[in-house]
Amino acid sequence: MASRRRRIIWAPGAQAALDAALGFIAQDSLSGAQKVLDGALALAESLETLSERGRVVPELQNPAIREVFVHSYRLIYEIRESEIQVVAFLHGARDFVRWIQDQS
After folding, report:
1. Domain membership flag for residue 1
2. What is the C-alpha to C-alpha distance for residues 40 and 101, in angstroms, rounded to an integer?
3. Cα separation of 85 and 7, whole Å?
4. What is the DSSP letter of 81?
């Protein structure tokens, strides 16, 4: 059976968070920033056909909103009919509830 392909879209906030994380990491290690970038892009691309591979975000318990880990970062995405939207890129130590409140 052929896998269903969905288009990957990065929400502006997720893209900005990835850029900020890369900038922070690059202050100490350009190669470290490159590894995080490569990992984030590869994982996001893999979601085109393996969209259910991530775990359900525990704080939300919504099966359409999942996450995969890129080093110590959470790449949070929403499964939609024909696309995957990356909605957040957060450091694992960040307070998720506070982040959700900041998005409102």
Report:
1. no
2. 24
3. 8
4. S
